[in-house]
Amino acid sequence: MTTVLIIVGVVVVVAIAGYFLQRGRATGAGGLKRRFGPEYDRVLARHQGDTKLAEQELGERVKRHGSISAQPLSAEARERYTARWTRVQERFVDAPEDAVAEAGDLLDELSRDRGFPETGSAEDRAEALSVHHGAHVDAYRRVHGARDGSGGTEELRKDLVGARALFDTLLGNPTGQQVERGRTDMDKQHDAKGSVTS
Questions:
Q1: For residues 149 and 131, what is the distance between their CA atoms, to the nearest angstrom?
Q2: For residue 107, which of 163, 69, 145, 61 has the smallest C-alpha distance?
Q3: Rg of the chain over CA atoms, in angstroms?
Q4: Residue 70 lies inside a defined structural domain of this protein
Q5: Which of 21, 54, 162, 180 could be joined to 139 by an S-S link, Cβ 3.0–4.6 Å?
Q6: Range of 191's domain?
Q7: Which phi and psi angles does 29 have, rounded to 5°?
Q8: Contact (CB, 8 A) for 38 and 138
């Protein structure tokens, strides 16, 4: 009987250790790098290469925002958002800074509708977005940072194209096709403006 209890105890301990080992892999360096993408490198650089501090910060983000689950959008809401983004791109031709600022506001609204936090600063929202959309969160920061007016038109165009990838992801569109279409539309508008002014 004692032997059976010892064997059962060992099996339970091994199972628990396996669980925590697997969980550690999912949130450890490799798991965090995969989850956060370029955001991992950004946080690591901010902590001057201190992996432990960077991973602690990212782990805290996962604890705070990892349970956010995307709220569905109705077909009508998707159409409204798509139409609004098209207007943002069209506005870029005449007012690039205003269009990029409007894109930031549109991303805020769309992310709230999808279940991300409503309150806090743009950086708070960026941190929440980074847990689920690490590959695109830099574009979110750039459109919010573009409000200071320091970027040229080409830089603003790149910011808007990058933001389109996050927009499509939040909307639920496959990003590749939508981003390429958005880039082509903006390039045509940019070329048309150039030919009119030259």
A1: 28
A2: 163
A3: 22
A4: no
A5: 162
A6: 75-197
A7: -55, -50
A8: yes
Half-sphere exposure of 96 (CA within 13 A, CB side): 19
Note whether 51 and 119 are same-domain residues: no
The CA–CA distances, whole Å, from 121 to 47, 124, 128, 167 equal: 21, 5, 11, 19
Give the tens place of pLDDT for each residue, 68-100.
888 899 999 999 999 999 999 999 999 999 999
One domain for residues 83 and 181: yes
Q: Are residues 45 and 130 in the same domain?
A: no
CB-count burial class (<10 Å; 0-12, 13-18, 19+) for 1: exposed
d(CA 114, CA 111): 5
pTM of the model as a whole: 0.69
- Total structural domains within the chain: 2
**Are the CB atoms for 55 and 28 separated by under 8 Å?**
yes
Residue 108 falls inside a structural domain: yes
- The one-letter amino acid code at 101 reads A
